[in-house]
Amino acid sequence: TGYLQCLHGSWEIPDPHTQLTSAWYYVGQTWRPGKYLRNISPGARMLAAGMATSSVATARSCCIPSTSGRSHLMNSGASSALGRSGTPRWQPSVRPAARQRGCAIRAIAEPAQRPQGSSSAPVGSVQVRLDNDSEEGYTVVHLEADSRPGLLSSLTNAFSDLGLEVLKAQVDGSSGRIQDTFHVQTADGTQVSGADALINIKRSIEAVLKAKPGAPKHTSKRPNLLMTAGVGLTEQDEGFRKKEHLYGLMDTYIKNDILSIEESIVNHVEYTMARSRYKFDDQEAYMATAYSLRDRLIESWNDTQAYFKEQDVKRVYYLSMEFLMGRSLLNALFNLDVTGAYGEALAEMGYNLESLVEQERDAALGNGGLGRLAACFMDSMASLDLPAWGYGIRYQYGMFRQSIVDGFQHEQPDYWLNFGNPWEIERLNVAYPIRYYGHVSVSEEDGRQRFKWNASETVTAVAYDNPIPGFNTSNTINLRLWAAKPDTEFDLEAFNTGDYVQAILSKQRAETLSSVLYPDDRTFEGKELRLKQQHFFVSATIQDVVRRYKELHTSFDAFPDKVAFQLNDTHPTIGVAELMRLLMDENNLGWTQAWDITQKVFAFTNHTVLPEALERWPVSLMEKLLPRHMQIIYDINWRFLQQMRGRLGDDWDRISRMSIIEEDHSGEKFVRMAYLAVVASHTVNGVAAIHSDIIKHTIFSEFYELWPEKFQNKTNGVTPRRWLAMCNPPMQKLLTDTLGSNAWINDLNMLESLRERADDPAFQAQWQEVKAAAKQTAMSHISALTGVQLPANALLDVQVKRIHAYKRQLLNVLGVIHRYQAIKDMSAEEKAQVVPRVVVIGGKAAPGYDLAKRIIKLSTAVGDVINRDPDVGDLLKLVFLPDYNVSLAEQIIPGTELSQHISTAGTEASGTSNMKFCMNGCLIIGTMDGANIEIGQEIGFDNMFIFGAETPDVEQLRAERPSLKVDPRFESAVNMIRNGAFGWADYFDPVLDNLSGSNDYYLLANDFPSYLEAQEAVDKTYRDKAAWTRMSIMSTAGSGFFSSDRCISQYAAEIWGVEKCTVPANL
C-alpha cells in the first residue's frame, strides 16, 4: 500500500525475486535490523537519495515499533510538503552524495497501485473506524484524513497517551490523503473493551487528525506589551500605530511543528551560513540547528526583557568570574520541550540528533564547582521566573584543554570559539570604556571636592548575550559576557610613521584581558592581569546596570529597590569601589548617600574555609592599576575603623585584625578583598551548613560578633533539569512513569515518595535495569577515552573534581595500591570472592600547582602497572579520565555506582558533584565535610559510607600527627611508591614528603584505616544487590533538598528581595 524511502542515504536491495521477511536500516553509523518490516516482495520502486532506483520492493505491511519505544517512522508527504509557494527553485536530480547518512523509514505519498475499494472521501474529511471483530486479540483502527508532515508521529504518540501499544500498521499516504490501519492492544495485551473507552479513543484520534495542518503544538500569540500599563502611548499616537503595526508582523511565536523546524534549519544553512541546502555536513547541520533554536530563544528573550522593563521590577545581577555552562543544544531543546520535534525533523532531513550534539564544544567559561554552580543558578532563576541577569567574561580560550601524555598533564589552549558560537548574540552597540592606570585630580565644584580619574589606558568591553531558557515557562533570561576590545581598533598614526609593532600592540593588550581564565598569578604581571580582568568585567557590568536603571528613573533614590548584586566569591568585590566611583564621580552623589546605596545592593557568597584562599591584592598594585579605587577603599576602611573604635574603644589588636588594609611583618600592605565584601554587603552567606558555621567562628569571627544578623547559610544545589532529567533519559522515564507526571522536574521533593518503593522487588528490578544501561554507557565512554578495556561486571567507582591536596585524590590512590597488594597476595579461591572494581579519577590541576600535577602522574603510573598485571586481571582497574568537563560528567555520572567525596573534614565548603551523583542513585563514600553532612541528613547516613575524623577533632589531630602510630597498611602503600614499584620514585618524593609527620596537613595517615573499613563495607553491600539497590533508591528519593531551585528560592526571598515575574502567554 505504500513505498519505502531512504533519505539521503542508500539501500542495499537483495535479489528482487527473493521474498523478504526483514530489512536493515542505517542509523547513527550503525546497521540495525528492521525487525518490524514484514512481507516485502517484488513489484514497487525504492527511492534513494531523492531519485528512483532500478531495485524495487513493495511494503505490503509496514509494522512500526510499539509506542512505548517511540517510533521514528515518519508519515507520508513530507518531501512534497517542503515545497514553497511562489516561483519554484531549481532542484538537482541527484543530491550530491558527500557522505552516507542515517536513514528514516517512512511511507510516502504514491502507491504502485491504488487498492480496490479505496475511499473517495473529499479532501478535508476525517474518518475513524474502530473494529474489534475482524482480528482476534486486536482492536483495529481504520483512519482516513489529509496527510501532513509529522502526522504519523502524532498518531503514535496519541496511542501511547491513551495507553495503547501499536503492534503493526498499514500506512498509505496516497495523493495527499492517508489511509492507515493500526492494530492496537491495551497494556495487558488485550483488545480495548467497553463502549466508553472506544468512543474516547475515536474522539482523541479524530482530534489529532483534525488539527490544522502545520499548526504547532506550542504555537501561541506573543504578549502585546503595548497593552500593558505604563507604556505612555494611546491609540491616537503615531508611535502607537507604528508599534502596533510592528507587533502585528510578528504576533505569534515561531511554530514548532516538524515542517516549520525543517524549514528553519534549512533557511539558516542557506541564508545564515551561505551553504548549499543540498550539501552540508554534521558540523554545519549542528550550527544551523543551533541558530534555529536561538531564533526561538530570542523571541522569548525579547519578550521577557520587555516585560521586565514595563513592570519595572527589581532585578538580581549575579556576578561571577566563571560560568561553566557545558553544551547548550540539548539543554535548550529540553527546556523548550522540543527535543522530540527536532529529533524527528533532523531524521527526516537525514541527520541524527545525537551526532549533532557531539559537534558542540563545551563553552570554556569556567573551571570547577564555582562556575558550574553559577550555571545551575542561571537555569533555576530562569525556571523560577525570576528577573535576573548573569554577568561574566567571554574567555577566548577559557581555562585550558587538558591532555595526558605519558601520564603527565599538558595544558593546551581550548579553542572553543574557533568555529563560532551560534548561541551568543554580539551586541556591538552595548560597549563601555574600562579605564586603568593614570592619576586622580581633585577640584572644587559648588563647595564640594570633585575627583577625576585621568586614566592612561582604556579598553572597551563589548557585550555578548547568551539567552538562558527556563523549563516549563515562557521566560528566558540573559547571561551577558564581556569581551575586551581596543579603545581604538588600530593605531593609524603609529602605522603611518613606521611603528608597525606599536600599531597592533594596543589591540593585543586589550584582547589579552578576556583571553584566559585565571592567568598564572605567581608573578607580578600575572597578578596584574588577574586584577585587570576582575575590574574589567565588574566595571562593564555596573555601568550597564546603572545605564539600565537610569532609563526609567531620574534619581538614585529607588536604586536599592530595583537592583541586587550577588558577588559569587571575592573575585567581583572590586565592584564595591567601582559603584562608589560611578555614583560619586560620574553621578555627583555624596559619600553618605553613595555608601548607603552600596551597602543595600551588595550581597556576598563566600566559597572557602581556608584563610590562604581568601583573595588579597598588594596595595602597590592597586594604586598603580586602579588609583581612584584605592582611594575609595582607603576611605571605606578609615570610616569603618573609626566606627569600630567607637564600639570597641582602643582595642587596636582587634581593630587591626578587622582592617580591610593588612600590613605584613615586612611592612608590605595588602587589600583583603573578602573583608571589603563583608563590610560593604548587607548579607554574607556560606554554601553548606557546616561551612557557614565554620566561617562564623574562624575567618570572619570578628565580623560575626559585630554583625551576627549579616550571616546566613544557603546550601548549594544543582539543577535537576540538566543533572537528572536531561542527562539520564531512562531514569527520567522511570521516575515520570512511577510518579505519574514529570512535575518532579520542577519540584524535586516529589521524589520522596520513592522511599515507599525502595524495598519493592519489581521496582528494584526496573531501577537496576536503568542503572545498568547507564553504567554500560559510562563504561564505554571511559574505555574510549583511556584505551583501557573495562570489565562490565565491576563496581564503577568514580572521583572527579579539581585536583587538590585537600580533596585527597592521593588517599584514593593509596587505597587502590592497598587493594592491589591484597589481591596479589590472595589465593585463587580468595580472588573468586573479590568484588571487581574500576576506579576512575579525573580533574584538572592548576598550571602552577606542582603537587597536584605529580598526583596526576602518580595515579596514571599506578594504573599502568595494575592494568597490565595478569595476577589481577579484571579484578581491579585504575584509569585517569583526561579533560574532565560538563559534557563528560553528563555521560559518566548517571552510570556511576560509587562516588568518592573524601576531603579532610572542615576543608570543603560544600561540593556539588556529590549532589549530582546522589540524584542519579549513586552511593557516596565520604567524610563528614561540606554538603556530605546534609546529604546524610536527607537520605539517611545508613545509605552512605562515612569515615574519617570530624571537624572539631582536626586541629588536635594535626598537632598530634608527628607522634601518630601509622597504620602498617598505609606505610606499605607509601613504601611501594618510594621503592619504585610504579616507577618515577624520585619524581614522587615531594608527594610522599607531604605524608610524613606534621607535613601530613590533610591527615591522610589518620583517616586511612577508617577509609579501608568503609571500602570493605562497600564491597560487602555490593554483593547484596537488593540492599545496594535499596540504598540507591533512597539516595535519589532524598535528593530533593539539593535542587538549585530550592537554593535560589531562598536567595530570592531571604537575601535579594526579588519576586517572580512571569511573562504572560498573551496580553
Rounded average pLDDT: 85
The portion of residues assigned to helices is: 40-55%
Query: For the CA atoms, what is the radius of gyration?
Result: 32 Å
- Main beta sheet: 9 strands, mixed
The count of DSSP E runs of length 2 or more, i.e. the number of strands, is 33
Could you say which overall geometry the principal axes of the C-alpha atoms support? globular
Q: How many individual helices?
A: 37
**Unreliable runs:** 1-118, 213-218
What class would the helix/strand composition place it in?
Answer: alpha/beta
Task: Tell me what the structure shows.
With 1067 residues, the chain is of the alpha/beta class. A 9-stranded mixed β-sheet has the order 16-19-20-13-12-21-22-26-27, with helices on both faces. A 6-stranded parallel β-sheet has the order 30-29-28-31-32-33, with helices on both faces. The chain contains 37 helices and 33 strands.
